[in-house]
Amino acid sequence: MKITAKLNLGNSEYVFEVDERDEMDALHKAIVLTNPKTKCDSCANTDTTAFRFDTNKDKEGNTYNSVLCRKCGAKSPLGRYKTGGYFWKPFEKFIKTNPGTSNVPTQKQPEKPAFAQDGFSSDWA
Ligand SMILES: [Zn+2]
Q1: Which of 2, 40, 44, 67 has the highest count of CB atoms within 10 angstroms of its CB?
Q2: Positive/negative CA dihedral, 101, 66, 38, 82
Q3: pLDDT by residue (tens digit) across 47-100?
Q4: Cβ neighbours, 10 Å, residue 110
Q5: Burial letters for 77-94: b for 16+ Cβ neighbours within 10 Å, e otherwise?
Q6: Distance between CA atoms of 62 and 112, rounded to whole angstroms?
Q7: Ligand 1 centre from 92 Cα, in Å?
Q8: Residue 95 per-residue DSSP state
Q9: Ligand 1: distance of its center to the CA of 19 in Å?
Q10: CA of 26 relative to ligand 1 center, distance in Å
Q11: Does the global pTM surpass 0.85?
Q12: Mind listing the pLDDT tens digit for each residue in 20-57?
């Protein structure tokens, strides 16, 4: 089943093309990806124009995708279940770890959320 789903976030329009053999999987991806959290858990911002996608890769090659609240800098990472499927994590401010201190929260993301995956592509234009 093929689904084309659109999302307007910040000043960008994203068109997701989901193609999954299983209809529930196709719907799941399309629905989750086009429905990021609309309220920042950190500053209570609900202005969708103040959100934007953010992405980064680490040295191990893991890709992290998230929605960034531009008002406070908190991020809502896209998580992926080991059994398949996606979910948006709550907005949280990630503080860069300062070597030598142990009481600073570190960015823990054991999941490997990635847009690039078989049967799924996104148009970032
Ligand atoms: Zn915020």
Answers
A1: 40
A2: negative
A3: 989 999 999 999 999 999 999 999 999 999 999 999 889 999 999 998 766 665
A4: 7
A5: bbbbeeeeebebbebbee
A6: 6
A7: 8
A8: P
A9: 33
A10: 30
A11: no
A12: 999 999 999 999 999 999 999 999 999 989 999 999 99
